[in-house]
Each structure stands twice: as structure tokens, then as C-alpha cells.
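Task: encode each sequence below as C-alpha cells.

Item 1
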Amino acid sequence: MTSNDSQPKEVTDILSTLKMIAEAVIGVAGADTLQQVFQQIAYVAQQLVGARYAALGIPGAGGTMAYFEVVGIAPDAIARIAHPPIGRGLLGVIMHEREILRLEHISDDPRHIGFPPGHPPMERLLGVPIQVGGQLFGMLYLTDRRDDQPFTQEDQWLVESLAGYAALAIAGAQLQDQHRRVTLLEERERVGMDLHDGVIQSLYAIGMQLQLVRLSQPAVADSVSQATRSLDAVIEDIRRYIHNLNAATYERTSIREGLLDVVARLHIPATLMLTVDAPHGPPPFSPSVVEAVCQIAYEVVSNIVRHADATHASITVTEGASSFRMVVQDDGRGFVPDSLDEFSSDALEDTVGLGLRNIVGRARVHNGEVTVTSAPGGGTRVTLTLPTWLVSSARLHGA
């Protein structure tokens, strides 16, 4: 008689289910990218309880959603939803309070705040935090079983079991992704430093020798001048290549991912609630512009953290058919004198002590405009606007 034969059927079924969940999650962990790992976990959860819709949310810094991967809604339907989840309402209850929710009627819960325009109707909810000890790795959201029955206690147990395995898969995938990023950034930095400290310095030395030849031998001055100009062009090409190595970090980064990375690097304090509302899709322009946008956000949010004494801040990006705009605002102390409550880029560049010259400079490189509105005790609003032709041109070139 085997050990399975000696066990009650219920125990055998439970062990079989746990084995199936474990094998499914192990298969998920082998995905190539973080996003694929998240999508597959959501898919496993959907299949496990027969849900119509499933989503996996990954918490970001400052109470934001770093990722929100959905299964069961077509991409074109997702595009029609007014905005992605930002971690409020019932989703926020699961994320912030780590509470398991099993609701037969979502709208009956007083913490429900409604769905954004374009969102498909949903009636029942099963939500489970993915956590180990005090660390939250994500949140599983399942709505509406395909058989139109309420979620059961057994469904909840299955999803809770999946969440335990999923925490390990998410942690492993995030560590692998972080290792890949660090390795890539270190290699780019090494190559850039080698080019700058080795090749460019050698070319500078050659240029100086050519200048000495030009001064000491007037007969060949024209030829030497031409060679010097060619050498300068080579140096500029190498400088541009080094810059592109740095900008390549943003090659496959959406604006939202770039901004969430900015937030993560700033270590937002617990006293500041920062939300990010930005498109998930490919950026509408080249990596160098994405880098500039993210660096501007970094400097503005850094100022908020260090000086504003704010409790709430937000980064909002809107992409229209012919425009791009990023607004960063806070409810902090403000800093503009009573006599002047708004600065344009021209005024900002000539104003000492605002710490915004880098922001204006980065915007102007890409023909952008920065406007700052503030008042003592009334918070601050920084708006970056990029011109129509820049956005349109980037789209035409497939950036």
C-alpha cells in the first residue's frame, strides 16, 4: 500500500492541488521579463478559480502601483479605460491594509469608489495580498467567476496558497531583473569611462600636437587645420556615442516605468504620499527625450522631498494627439514670493536660488517649456510642456 493510499481523499486532493500550484509558479519563474512573470501569475490565478478577470498589482514607492497586469480584458478594451488603477478604493484596502476581501457585491462595500469610465462592469471580488511576514510583494485581484457563482472559501484558500508561492517567484524575478540592470549599467559606464578617459584623451593629445605643428610650420597650416577639424568631428562622434550609452537605459522604458524608477531611487519618506499617473505604452519620442523628462521629474520630486514639507504629491502625464505634458505638484509650503506667483522658463533661468536652472536647461534642449506656479502655504505646481512637432516627429520615426 502506498502512502497516498493510506491518506484520506481530501488530503490527497489538497496535496495534489498544492503540487499543481507549485509547478505552475515554478514554470512562471522561468519567464524572460518581469512583466511576463506578473502576467503569468495573474493567468494562473484566473485559471485556478475560473475567474473572468484577474490582475496582479505590484506596489511601488509612495503608495503607487508599479505594475498592474490584467488577464481577461483585451488590449483595445484596456486602452478605452480612462486611467490605470492608482491604488485607491478596494484595491487600496488590499494593498495598504493587507486585508483579504471576498465580496459578492462590490458596490455594497462602503470603501468602493467606483470604476473609471470605460471600465468593464464587475460584480464579485476576491482579493488577496501577496506577502511574506511584513513585506508586501503584490496583490491578486479576481472578479466574477465564469459560472456566475460567488467566490467560495475554497477559492480563497486556493488563491492564498498561490500567493505564498507567487511571493517567492516575484522576489526571485525582481532580484534577477535588478541584477541584469546593474550589470548592464555597470558595463555601459565602464565602456563610457574607457572611451572618455582613454580614447578621447589620446585624441586630445594628438590635436595638441597638430596645433604645435601648425604654429611651427606655416607651410602646412591649412592641411593641419583640416586634419584638426576632422579630429574634432571624431571626438564629437565619440562623445555622442557615450551619451547614447547612457540614454539607452531608456530605450525600452515607458514614461510610467521611467517615472516609477525615479520615485524608487528617491526613497520617498512614509510621510509623503506620491502618486504617478502616466501611460503604460511606448514613449512618443526618443530615449534621450525620455531621459530628460525623467531627470526633470527627479529634480522636481527631489526638491519636494527636501524642501516642501508636503504630505501629498503627484506626477501626471498626458499625451494627446499633438502634445505632451507632465505636471508635478505638491501641497507643501510653496516658495515663490507674494509679488510673483508664476514663473515662465525665461524668468526661472534668471532667478537665483530656486534650484530650477537644470530643469529649464533640460527642457530647452528639446524645445520644451517649464512653468512653475506656487504661493506661500499653497503648494507648488511644475508643468513641463513639449512642442507638438517634437512628439509628432518622434512618432513618425518609430521612436
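Item 2
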Amino acid sequence: MSIFVQKGAPDCSISDDELRVLVHQTIEKSGKQPKKMLLLPPDHTRLNSRAGRITEMIYEDYHDKCEIDIMPALGTHSPMNDAQLEMMFGKKIPKSVFKVHDWRNDVVTLGTASSEFLKELSGGKLDYEVKIQVNKILFEPYDLILSIGQVVPHEVVGLANYTKNIMVGVGGSDIINKSHFLGAVSNMEKIMGHADSPVRRLFNYGVDTYLADRPLVFMLTVMAKDQATGKMAMRGFFSGQGPDAFLASSDLCVKTNLELLDKPLKKVVVYLDPEEFKSTWLGNKAIYRTRMAIADNGELIILAPGLREFGEDKQNDLLIRKYGYKGTPNTLKAVAENQDLRDNLGAAAHLIHGSSEGRFRIIYCPGKDMPPGQIRSVGFECGNLDAMMKRYDPAKLKDGFNTVNGEEIFYISNPALGLWALKQNFIQ
């Protein structure tokens, strides 16, 4: 299907006024004059996506002529509180407009992806069927459903957003769990940074097969930190109904958000903003997004002042505490031997993604809300946050290579914004 709107380049910077025009053009080109509209933006953990601002614009400009509901695409994340809603979407939207996605209870099963299909996708490693599940709100009488979000490297699907925002963001437990495990057994290093992957094909199948008759339009952004200003810049905006807008945004994302390095990194320091990263479920992006660049016997130091839990979901939190981040062989053995982990394959996939497989050290440095003993109990080393923040001061470091007391380190101010890999290991 054709692209409605596209604007972008690696050196592009789309202003707020330009963005508003692109948003209006998208709605106009949808051919709809909606009386009732559903918006599906991400939650506050994707603060840098500008999806919150897009959502705010749509509400500002259309709420007086259209009934608008907003359901943040939480996936397995915790529901947003009022402060988080205001941080992401501003203070003008009434809280009554927001709906909460319950991935365990508020979904409908539309059909299944067959075991034969999963066997094909996984190269014979899996043969279970997958229930295609979405929140039942998608079948209320909306004239227009806008899925809003950022295309960025992702450990499960390759590049986040597009059909993932539906199948996971407002999806159900079966497809969330089983798609994540499909990604884990398909080798994360071969998936990350790619528009096509086994998991993407599963998500596309679900949307194309069971939601083709819904008035669904995708708005996709590509974001990057401007090195001159240190602020986030919108490098691209793409919208449409089919894969073309996603593929165009993916091309720009690869040019903008991937940093391919000539040599392995011996020491990496990653800062996790306490407003964005409160769990290892999210904070382990520091591991996912760097492990293709870290040297054998290297060191990853994660500065995590806001860390307070392991899983965003209570059940996932319990499973992480029980089984820990102990690598692929141990996790697969635990899946084979324990029903609770077999019933929550998304958690099993997360345990695999969050391990260095014994190849390099991971030193988590939490704040006061996470005791050191709990960090060690799940398989990480624990560092002293105050001492590490004094040595590696985020206010003084720049993204990329720095020299600190004669030592070369590689600093990342936000791991959610990109992917770091060795040129020789990244398969285009």
C-alpha cells in the first residue's frame, strides 16, 4: 500500500510546526473524517519517540469535532500513573480519555498462527501454535485507529514498531510470550537492526490476516540525538496503512540509529535515566543494544539510579528473581523442567537477552531502591552507584569514546536510542 506522508533524512530535523502539518496530512490522506478515533501511542518508556507530542497535537486539534480515546500500548509494562501520563502526553488531555491495556484479561483471540508456520519461522526449533490476540477495544466502532511510535533497533523483532505496536503493544499473553521466545531462539544478533525477521513475519501475519478490515493507520518516527545540541531531533516521519511506510522508516533508522564500530569495546558505561528505567526488564537495553560491540572479557557498567524492580509485571518479576540471567543453556534447561517458565516464555526470552552468556562482565549500579544482594541474586555483579557516578559522571561524559583517568571508555547516555555493533559482525 502507498505511503501517505514521508519526510526524513539523517541530517533532517522536523520542527513542532512541521510535525503538526505532517500529522494533519496523514489524517486527511486516510480518507476519513472521523467522528470517533482511537490513538495507540507507546507509554512513557518511549518518551524520546515524540509519540506523546503527536498524541497531544491530535487531541488539541481534533477533540472538539471527534470523540478520542487513547490507549497507551503498554505490552507487559505497568499501567501509567498520572505523573507519567503528564510527562508523556502533557497536562491538557483529561485523564478520562486514557484507557489501560490489560494484556492478560482484556484481549480477544482472533485466530491462530499454525504450528507449521512457527516451525518454518524458527527453522524447526519451535512447533507450537500462537494465538493472535489483541485488546478488544480495537473492535469498537472507530472511524480511525492511529498507531503511533518510533522505529528503533529492538532485540525481539529487529526494529520496533509498525505491527509490533499492535501484536505486542495491545496484544495478549500468548502472542507476547511466544513471539519473544521465537526471537530468542532465532538468535538476537541476527535479528537486531533488521526490518525483516521471523518475529516480524509473525506480527505481520497477525495484522494482515485478522485486522485488514480495521481503519488502522501507522504514524512512525525516527529519532536521534543531535550531537551539536545534545537534544533529541526527529529525523523522519512516515505514515501509511501498509508496509511501505515502515520499510522507508526502517531504511532511515538503520542509517541514523546504528553505530557500527571498527574494534570491540573493552569498557562500556551506560546511564539509565531514572524517569525512564525503573526495572531490568527495560534497563537491560543496556545489555541488548551493546553486546554485539563488547569485547570478550570486556566490562559493561550500568548506572541505574532509578532501579527498583526486575519485571514490570509482577509475575515476570517473580520469574526473574527465581531463575536469574544465567545464559541460554541454563534458561532452556529451566524451560524444559519448569511449567511456570513454559507458561511465560516472554520472561524466558528476556532472561536469555539479559545475559552476556559468560562472555563479558555486567556490573549493575542501582540506587537506594534495589539492594545489592538482589542484584547479585539474579546473576549480575553489583557496583556502588555513588562511587561509579563520581568516576563516570554523566554530566561530563559525551556519547562515544571518552578518556577517564587515563582509561578509555565508551559512554552511552540512553541505550534505547540505538544499536552498537562491530562492523564485521553486523550482517546487512
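Check on item 2: DSSP finds 17 helices and 18 strands in the chain. The first helix runs from residue 16 to 29.
End of task.
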